[in-house]
């Protein structure tokens, strides 16, 4: 079984994330989408809400499992017998941070990180920018799945 992890905060999942998850699902038998539980960072959606959204929007791929984790990603990989991490790279600005994390993760555990280039259609997209635009009434349709769009608008309006 070739298994891989796509980790992240996913607050909320965007079409950019979904593009990476979907393309990864065609290369591996099982993709574990791992949602970080980060008590230090204020999030818009709870971890369980993020998991529900991810499950709904990845259902059609057929080989995605959504889990939560806290602590080190490499410990989660060891527990789940996952040898490989897949990360999307949007631009050179992502590279320094991602390279350091990939090297540290390899050094700690031997877990490999593979980088997938983001679809240029979404290379400018991040969950934090998305929330900022939506918060001030900007149109984010087309950047997130419809289900996420409706929950996002509802949450920010409420
Ligand atoms: O979507 P994000 O917030 O960019 O995801 C970052 C994430 C979850 C992949 C990263 O913060 C992570 O792996 N955190 C777990 C803690 C960890 O393993 N830190 C050591 C990295 S060298």
Automatic annotation (TrEMBL):
<dbReference type="GO" id="GO:0015937">
    <property type="term" value="P:coenzyme A biosynthetic process"/>
</dbReference>
<dbReference type="InterPro" id="IPR014729">
    <property type="entry name" value="Rossmann-like_a/b/a_fold"/>
</dbReference>
<dbReference type="GO" id="GO:0005524">
    <property type="term" value="F:ATP binding"/>
</dbReference>
<keyword id="KW-0548">Nucleotidyltransferase</keyword>
<dbReference type="GO" id="GO:0005737">
    <property type="term" value="C:cytoplasm"/>
</dbReference>
<feature type="binding site">
    <location>
        <begin position="122"/>
        <end position="128"/>
    </location>
    <ligand>
        <name>ATP</name>
    </ligand>
</feature>
<feature type="binding site">
    <location>
        <begin position="88"/>
        <end position="90"/>
    </location>
    <ligand>
        <name>ATP</name>
    </ligand>
</feature>
<feature type="binding site">
    <location>
        <position position="98"/>
    </location>
    <ligand>
        <name>ATP</name>
    </ligand>
</feature>
<comment type="similarity">
    <text>Belongs to the bacterial CoaD family.</text>
</comment>
<feature type="binding site">
    <location>
        <begin position="9"/>
        <end position="10"/>
    </location>
    <ligand>
        <name>ATP</name>
    </ligand>
</feature>
<keyword id="KW-0963">Cytoplasm</keyword>
<comment type="subunit">
    <text>Homohexamer.</text>
</comment>
<feature type="binding site">
    <location>
        <position position="87"/>
    </location>
    <ligand>
        <name>substrate</name>
    </ligand>
</feature>
<comment type="pathway">
    <text>Cofactor biosynthesis; coenzyme A biosynthesis; CoA from (R)-pantothenate: step 4/5.</text>
</comment>
<keyword id="KW-0808">Transferase</keyword>
<keyword id="KW-0173">Coenzyme A biosynthesis</keyword>
<feature type="site" description="Transition state stabilizer">
    <location>
        <position position="17"/>
    </location>
</feature>
<dbReference type="GO" id="GO:0004595">
    <property type="term" value="F:pantetheine-phosphate adenylyltransferase activity"/>
</dbReference>
<feature type="binding site">
    <location>
        <position position="41"/>
    </location>
    <ligand>
        <name>substrate</name>
    </ligand>
</feature>
<feature type="binding site">
    <location>
        <position position="73"/>
    </location>
    <ligand>
        <name>substrate</name>
    </ligand>
</feature>
<dbReference type="InterPro" id="IPR004821">
    <property type="entry name" value="Cyt_trans-like"/>
</dbReference>
<keyword id="KW-0547">Nucleotide-binding</keyword>
<keyword id="KW-0067">ATP-binding</keyword>
<dbReference type="InterPro" id="IPR001980">
    <property type="entry name" value="PPAT"/>
</dbReference>
<dbReference type="Pfam" id="PF01467">
    <property type="entry name" value="CTP_transf_like"/>
</dbReference>
<feature type="binding site">
    <location>
        <position position="9"/>
    </location>
    <ligand>
        <name>substrate</name>
    </ligand>
</feature>
<feature type="binding site">
    <location>
        <position position="17"/>
    </location>
    <ligand>
        <name>ATP</name>
    </ligand>
</feature>
<comment type="function">
    <text>Reversibly transfers an adenylyl group from ATP to 4'-phosphopantetheine, yielding dephospho-CoA (dPCoA) and pyrophosphate.</text>
</comment>
<feature type="domain" description="Cytidyltransferase-like">
    <location>
        <begin position="5"/>
        <end position="132"/>
    </location>
</feature>
<keyword id="KW-0460">Magnesium</keyword>
<protein>
    <recommendedName>
        <fullName>Phosphopantetheine adenylyltransferase</fullName>
        <ecNumber>2.7.7.3</ecNumber>
    </recommendedName>
</protein>
């Amino acid at each position: 079984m070739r298994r891989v992890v796509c980790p992240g905060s996913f607050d909320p999942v965007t079409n950019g994330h979904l593009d990476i998850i979907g393309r990864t699902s065609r290369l591996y038998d099982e993709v574990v989408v791992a949602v970080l539980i980060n008590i230090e960072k204020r999030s818009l959606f709870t971890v369980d809400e993020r998991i529900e959204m991810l499950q709904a929007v990845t259902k059609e791929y057929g080989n995605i499992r959504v889990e939560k984790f806290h602590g080190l990603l490499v410990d989660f990989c060891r527990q789940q017998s996952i040898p490989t991490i897949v990360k999307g790279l949007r631009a050179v600005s992502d590279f320094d941070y991602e390279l350091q994390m990939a090297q540290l993760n390899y050094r700690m555990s031997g877990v490999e990180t593979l980088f997938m280039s983001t679809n240029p259609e979404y290379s400018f997209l991040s969950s934090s920018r998305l929330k900022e635009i939506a918060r001030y009434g900007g149109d984010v349709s087309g950047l997130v799945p419809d289900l996420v769009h409706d929950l996002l608008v509802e949450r920010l309006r409420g």
